[in-house]
Design goal:
The structure holds 4 protein chains of 4 kinds.
Chain B lengths: L1 E10 L3 H8 L2 H7 L3 E8 L2 E10 L2 E15 L3 E10 L2 E13 L5 E12 L1 H33 L1
Antiparallel strand pairs in B: 1-7, 2-3, 3-4, 4-5, 5-6, 6-7
Chain C lengths: L14 H5 L15 E7 L5 E7 L1 H4 L4 E6 H7 L21 E2 L5 E7 L2 H10 L1 E6 L6 H4 L15 E4 L2 E3 L2 H7 L2 E9 L11 E7 L4 E6 L6 H8 L7 E4 L14 H14 L3 E4 L2 H7 L7 E9 L5 E13 L24 E10 L13 H19 L3 H8 L8 E2 L5 E2 L4 H11 L2 H13 L3 E13 L5 H5 L10 E7 L5 E5 L8 H13 L7 E4 L16 H28 L6 E4 L2 E4 L6 E2 L1 H10 L13 E6 L19 E13 L6 E11 L6 H21 L30 E5 L21 H13 L13 H8 L5
Parallel strand pairs in C: 1-13, 11-12, 15-16, 21-22, 28-29
Antiparallel strand pairs in C: 1-5, 2-4, 2-6, 3-5, 7-16, 8-16, 9-14, 10-11, 10-13, 14-15, 17-18, 19-27, 20-21, 20-26, 23-24, 24-25, 27-28
Helix pairs in contact in C: 7-8, 10-19, 15-16, 18-19
Chain D lengths: L4 E8 L2 E8 L4 H8 L18 E4 L2 E4 L12 E3 L13 H8 L9 H14 L5 H7 L11 H11 L8
Parallel strand pairs in D: 1-5
Antiparallel strand pairs in D: 1-2, 3-4, 3-5
The chains are: A alpha+beta, B alpha+beta, C alpha+beta, D alpha+beta.
């Protein structure tokens, strides 16, 4: 299990990385943490001729609160694509503003892989079961892609196309992820998944974030399901239905039933499509309850 | 590792024209995902090179494509076989063409593919999603061919 | 018994080198000029190999050779197999036909493993896929594709044994039950893959081999296949083995590498990567369907059993069919069952070949037996503890002869079970289960009481192959006292973590009354070694321990003889204490250790007549009660010693997801005298963890077209510290009358009862909803499917 | 076609090590084959088993998932680096011996690295935290029990220096 030969270039700026991508196109791959890419290269399923290392780029390491002047609604926390997962777990701003991301990270791999793996790496790898991509979809994050010509914003919900297939072009680099941060203190979130062993790929995962008003009425809800469709699936239509409700058990059960009808699961060695659909229903119910309790 | 795909797609082309397109090797070369060369061996049988590239995963196969069970203009079977360093793949799909509206044809397909080698051994979790994606790519390419033909 | 060192807390001799990164595993062996091997493997379940073209591979700089099956098979002899099926030939590389996906088709030799893999990709193989068979039951039906057409059938071995009045017992019994359980294809999957390095010295005509092995007769089999005299192969047994638990056999790897090293004239190393290991390492374990019938009375007395065991050994047979043989020696478990019919059937399919796994087939059989006991209890509405106690062999009934001809040495099964129940706080366990059930969760208690036959002999070989009359299964030890008085023990096989160096040092220390920490233990190489049958079969505490004791006693006898001669008194008047010999009573006449050693080494004039100079002794020991051929009706004394393990486990299942969690785990264990309790406990904890894997997580799964789907650690799920619970272990000691210190084996402990207990617990949890699950592993999907009322 | 070599320089167990390596050489292969530090092991080469764990810039990582060129300029601590300066075993290594937290010893270096990192962060971890910290390190011999015991033992008697 040794990778096929390749050439290596460590970029010192993002522009330099983009220039390299422009030069080598589909023959090149970016590497940051490499926790998904390196095993695939070891199995020779991935065999880029060039690896462009962006792990140390300062530009991609920032976690910043950035209020978007265009949108009046939410604050924004921007996370550089090469921020390591373990950093998110400890960063005060990320912990305070992106609790759902923090909850998701508890399910991501193990200590050693979180020490190395990056937020952006998990997103562009686009495993349908991966936790971070699901959070970006559920929170309706915006992904900023850069290439030699400039920046392009793509909503996370339009980014994931199929297992490990995304809307990113070969010459583009994911630069940052802008997560909306809901205003108001009464926000709760939850992330749950079923995997066979802890740290394995989720058979199914689900997460939710809800905001309640002073009377406990749901004013906003976002949720989604991972591992049960070819890509992480946000369920905005269910979120909209929940807004305005008391988020009582009956409503939650109905929402879970509805959610389970919107997914497109496949069967594999560890889970049939029917089992995945069932788990999706169970987990949506659980995360909505937990998110509700999290507020209270 | 066996994969099943089936579905249907409405295409903006009359049945007879679509039929001609579907068995045209030039169109096959453009629509079969990853196909980079087609060389005729005999009637309805071609040698081909395939370079499958799905995101990070890439694999090269040498193989063949064959069209059999032809009942013009309503039915045929497309079989693709290939072998490469990461294993083999063999798939076949039956296509049924039904006239729909004016200049419109409903194409139904039902097929299965078999994979062997490393891809099958380590990729089982995502293969079926990838297969669906490749079917999607096939139809996108086909639609593009149709547009080009009309243009 | 009162021991000085045995049974006491003592640090092991091996650990310090491993905690500092100074172990020497085969991948750490770097020979000057060494080249590396990568493999070309078949992607097909079955295919004819029509052509292999290596030009593009050989064109790469740094690539030295591409070896095909055609060349290799002409130059080496087939590898040995256990049963009488000479036409089921196996070679390291496929010869003309590849019989499972992943089978080795060609080997590439290059300057580095990286280059070898580059080249392997460029070897072009023309395959013609041919029909294959994956289902064990269908494989024995007429018309099934034959894995080895020359053999004429997919049945490797089949025999029906009847021991005792089975039909009469069935006719007399008040109740009968029949059922099927299935043991899934899992294995031991050590964290170190198999590896071997070899170097041929043309001047000496000697092949040096370093390998990660746990394999009886490994040097002999390697030499034989390579058509070399036995003394032309030297295997170094001091290579640390990174886990084995049965599977590190590696004959095919070694014949391949040995052939390449000899032919190419430079050292060659092959370390399996994980994908090669999982698919083509030939290390899958039993894959077994049990059909059981049980005859029992209304009071729970089990009278008789009929067991049909159909085992899918994959595409080739090494020793794997014999894994159906070992259970013959404990076919009734710890129970007084008067008669048994046993029909083992070993079949070929187009899957990776099976190899020995911890317990050599006993754990699957124990799972079947314990499932039977639970079913009988459920059928009668009896308590599962009570039914076990009702049927247990009583502690005063030993030695106890079971119907298949084996005599159990000793045991106290009631006490061990009671201790396990107490350790588990059984009453609170029942309360917890009831509370969970009331709260709408699924919870179940599992109990298993299983035997670990230990000591190992080769009795299953003649039982399963009348042409094989092997009855000798010795092990040995050499002890040397050097001129400085330091003690060195020489063992004659490699170790894979079982602490043999500590074992030998402790035993030598015990007999010679010298501090074990001062005793060095080394591993001989195969040309200097005394005979050994390697640490298989839970046998080293008994056999290596026994051999070390025997050798030490000879040293002690020599010391006494020297002392008697020099002190001028008969030996009967002498007393040996901590290496010094004194005349009994307060005479003050004595000779110290150093003096005795010096006489032995340097003062021949003071040696008693007839005693060799120097101070060393060897002892070669045959397995107690071994050495006999089976009777015509297949009765045989299998292993000599029988350890018991009682597992009590509480499992909770999330009814919504099917996920099972082990909430409490207790194990009562009796392996006689423990020589080093930390080692015994460690082996047992590890065995339990391995058993948890087999019960809940691990499976080599195949697709319908014969592809191994669990080829990586992403899909073959070895449990981590997050899945394995904290385990409460409680010891009991019923010494074996057959061994030096009363010790029995424990190398397979834990694994032999854990799957049975967990399966019983899961079924106890599912019981209230009328569901049960009859197949391992009991994955979340399988459990959920049963909760939904679907088939397993 | 000979492969291009890249100069790498890193601190390994506090010693500056430099070499020219191909880009595809993983850090574990660099440590084992180039530097002959064979205490770090490879068990799966796809990032699951944890046998290859080392500390890179203070954090435990899987060295099979990092190319040596990526670690250029970094600081690596391997199992060999955890011994005391006189070559005897450190506190944690000693605890592993005392609790017999190993059998074949193959996963042990990675396990000790993971435990070492845990104790650096959290000198008095709970059992659950210990299991979490070693959850990415597979052991086939011990059932983890004596490993957990050893880490608990070490957590009670760390001497503040090299563990």
């Amino acid at each position: 299990m040794k990778a096929a030969p390749f050439e290596y270039f460590r970029a010192s700026t993002l522009a330099e990385a983009c220039a390299q991508l422009a030069e080598h196109g589909a023959d090149a791959k970016l590497i940051a943490g490499g926790q998904s890419l390196v095993p695939m290269m070891a199995m020779r399923l991935a065999r880029p001729a060039w690896l462009i290392d962006i792990r140390r780029l300062e530009e991609l390491q920032r976690i910043e609160s950035r209020n978007d002047p265009v949108s009046s609604a939410d604050d924004v926390v921007s996370v550089g694509a090469a921020v390591r997962q373990c950093v998110i777990e400890r960063d005060p701003l990320a912990r305070a503003s992106l609790p759902l991301l923090g909850r998701a990270l508890k399910w991501v791999g193990h200590v050693q892989t979180r020490n190395r793996g990056t937020v952006g790496g998990s997103i562009v790898h686009a495993d349908p079961s991966a936790e971070i991509p699901l959070v970006t979809c559920v929170l309706d994050a915006v992904l900023e892609l850069r290439d030699a010509a400039g920046a392009t914003d793509v909503p996370a919900r339009e980014f994931f196309l199929a297992p490990m297939v995304t809307a990113i072009a070969p010459e583009q680099c994911l630069a940052e992820i802008r997560f909306p941060v809901w205003k108001g203190a009464r926000v709760g979130s939850a992330f749950e998944e079923v995997s066979i062993r802890q740290g394995d790929f989720a058979l199914v995962s689900a997460c939710a974030q809800v905001a309640l008003d002073a009377d406990g009425k749901c004013i906003r809800a976002a949720l989604g399901i991972g591992g049960a469709s070819p890509f992480p699936q946000a369920l905005p239509e269910i979120g909209e239905r929940l807004a305005g409700t008391q988020l009582d058990d009956r409503t939650i059960v109905d929402a879970a039933d509805a959610a389970a009808k919107l997914i497109d699961p496949d069967g594999d060695l560890h889970a049939t499509a029917a089992y995945r659909r069932h788990l999706a229903r169970v987990l949506v119910e659980r995360v909505l309850r937990s998110a509700r309790e999290d507020v209270r | 590792m066996a994969l099943e795909v089936q579905g249907e797609q409405t295409l903006q082309l009359g049945r007879a024209e679509l039929w001609r397109m579907l068995i045209d090797p030039a169109v096959l070369a453009k629509t079969i995902p990853g196909c980079n060369a087609v060389r005729r061996i005999e009637e309805d049988r071609y040698e081909m090179g395939l370079k499958i590239q799905v995101a990070n995963v890439s694999g090269e196969y040498m193989g063949s494509v064959a069209i059999t069970d032809k009942r013009e203009p309503e039915h045929y079977v497309l079989t693709v076989e290939g072998q490469g360093s990461i294993g083999f793949m063999k798939g076949s799909a039956a296509f049924d063409l039904e006239p729909k509206g004016e200049g419109e044809t409903l194409l139904r397909y039902a097929g299965s593919a078999e994979l062997g080698g490393v891809v099958a051994g380590v990729g089982q979790r995502v293969l079926s999603g990838v297969a669906k994606f490749l079917v999607g790519r096939f139809f996108k390419a086909l639609e593009k061919c149709i547009e080009e033909a009309k243009a | 018994m009162n021991f000085r060192y045995i049974g006491k807390k003592r640090r092991t001799k091996e650990d310090p080198r491993f905690v500092t990164g100074r172990g020497r595993f085969v991948a750490d062996v770097a020979l000057p000029g060494m080249k590396h091997v990568a493999l070309v493997t078949s992607p097909h379940a079955a295919a004819r190999i029509k052509a292999i073209r290596a030009e593009k591979a050989l064109a790469l700089q740094g690539v030295h050779y591409v070896l095909t099956g055609e060349e290799l098979c002409a130059a080496v002899d087939p590898l040995l197999i256990g049963v009488d099926a000479p036409l089921v030939r196996r070679y390291p590389l496929a010869n003309g036909v590849a019989r499972y996906a992943g089978e080795w088709v060609a080997a590439v030799v290059a300057d580095s493993r990286h280059l070898a893999e580059d080249a392997a990709e460029r070897v072009e193989v023309d395959y013609e896929p041919i029909p294959y068979i994956l289902d064990a039951e269908k494989s024995i039906e007429p018309g099934a594709p034959l894995v080895h057409p020359e053999h004429g059938s997919n049945v490797l071995y089949r025999r029906k044994f009847v021991w005792g009045p089975v039909e009469e017992d069935f006719a007399r019994a008040a109740h009968r039950l029949s059922f099927r359980v299935r043991w899934g294809r899992s294995a031991t999957v050590p964290i170190e893959t198999f590896g071997v390095a070899a170097q041929w010295d043309p001047a000496q005509q000697l092949l040096d081999v370093w390998a990660s092995i746990q394999m009886p007769k490994f040097p002999d089999q390697t030499a034989r296949a390579l058509r070399l005299p036995g003394n032309a192969v030297r295997v170094y047994f001091d290579v640390d083995v990174g886990g084995s638990f049965g599977v590190k056999r590696g004959i095919k790897h070694t014949v391949l590498v040995g052939y390449l090293a000899k032919k190419l004239g430079f050292p060659v190393r092959f370390i399996e990567d994980r994908l090669e290991n999982m698919r083509g390492g030939d290390m899958h374990g039993p894959d077994r369907i049990f059909d059981l019938q049980v005859a029992f009375d209304a009071d729970g007395t089990i009278r008789s059993m009929k067991i049909r065991a159909l085992d899918d050994v994959g595409a080739y047979a090494g020793r794997s069919p014999l894994q159906l043989g070992k259970p013959v020696g404990a076919i009734v478990g710890p129970y007084r069952i008067g008669s048994v019919e046993y029909e083992p059937i070993s079949v070929l399919t187009n899957k990776t070949a099976q190899e020995a796994v911890r317990g050599f087939g006993q754990s699957p059989t124990n799972y079947a037996l314990e499932s039977a006991v639970d079913r009988v209890a459920r059928h009668l509405g009896m308590d599962r503890v009570a039914i076990r106690k009702k049927n247990f062999i009583g502690k005063d009934q030993f030695p106890y002869l079971i119907p298949s001809g084996t005599t159990y040495d000793s045991g106290d099964y009631h006490t061990v079970l009671d201790k396990a129940l107490a350790a588990a706080e059984y009453a609170s366990l029942v309360e917890m289960r009831e509370a969970a059930r009331k709260a709408g969760r699924l919870a179940g208690i599992g109990i298993s009481t299983c035997l670990e036959p230990s000591g190992g002999n080769t009795a299953f070989e003649p039982l399963f192959n009348p042409k094989n009359e092997t009855t000798t299964w010795m092990d040995s030890c050499l002890v040397r006292i050097d001129l400085s008085g330091a003690i060195t023990g020489v063992m004659n096989t490699s170790s894979a973590g079982q602490g043999h160096e500590t074992l030998v040092a402790t035993v030598l220390g015990e007999i010679l009354e010298r501090d074990p920490d001062t005793i060095r233990v080394v591993h001989a190489d195969s040309l200097t070694a005394l005979p050994s049958n390697s640490p298989v079969a839970s046998r080293m505490a008994i056999m290596l321990g026994g051999a070390a004791a025997g050798a030490a006693k000879r040293i002690k006898a020599a010391l006494l003889a020297i002392a008697a001669h020099n002190l001028g008194v008969p030996e009967t008047l002498l007393e040996y204490r901590e290496g010094n010999v004194a005349v009994k009573g307060a005479t003050g006449k004595s000779l110290g250790w150093d003096q005795l050693v010096e006489i032995a080494h340097r003062k021949f004039h003071r040696m008693p007549p007839g005693l060799e100079p120097g101070l060393q002794a060897k002892f070669v020991w045959e397995v107690p009660k071994g050495g006999a051929l089976p009777t015509a009706d297949g009765r045989i004394q299998m292993y000599p010693c029988f350890s018991l393990e009682a597992h009590v486990v509480l499992v909770e299942i999330d009814p919504a997801t099917g996920q099972a969690k082990l909430v409490r785990y207790a194990c009562g264990h009796d392996c006689g005298t423990m020589i080093n309790p930390d080692i015994v406990h460690g082996l047992t904890y590890g065995g339990i963890a391995h058993g948890i894997g087999a019960a809940l997580y691990e499976k080599f799964a195949y697709s319908d077209n014969g592809q191994l789907l669990s080829q990586s650690f992403m899909d073959y799920l070895i449990p981590s510290a997050l899945e394995i619970p904290s385990i409460t272990m409680v010891d009991h000691c019923t010494p074996s009358p057959l061994t030096e210190f009363g010790q029995k084996g424990s190398g397979e402990a834990g694994y032999l009862g854990a799957p049975a207990a967990i399966a019983c617990a899961v079924n106890d949890a599912l019981g209230p909803m009328g569901a049960s699950i009859d197949e391992l592993p009991m994955t979340p999907l399988a459990i959920w499917t049963r909760i939904q009322g679907g088939p397993t | 076609m000979s492969e291009r070599l890249y100069r790498v320089s890193m601190l390994v167990n506090a010693q500056r090590r430099e070499a020219e390596v191909p880009a595809r050489l993983t850090l574990v292969d660099f440590l084992r084959d180039t530097l002959r530090l064979t205490g770090t092991h490879t068990g799966c080469e796809h990032g699951i088993c944890g046998a290859c764990s080392v500390l890179l810039d203070g954090a435990p990582v899987r060295s099979c998932l990092i190319y040596a060129v990526q670690a250029d300029g970094g600081s690596v601590i391997t199992i060999e680096g955890l011994a005391r300066p006189d070559g005897t075993q450190g506190t944690l290594q000693d605890s592993f011996c005392e609790a017999h937290a190993l059998q074949c010893g193959f996963c042990t270096p990675g396990m000790i690295i993971a435990a070492h990192a845990l104790l650096n962060d959290n000198p008095a971890p709970s059992e659950a935290q210990i299991r979490e910290a070693i959850g990415g390190n597979l052991c086939r011999c011990t059932g983890y029990q004596q490993i957990v015991d050893a880490i608990q033992l070490a957590s009670g008697k760390r001497d503040g220096g090299i563990a």
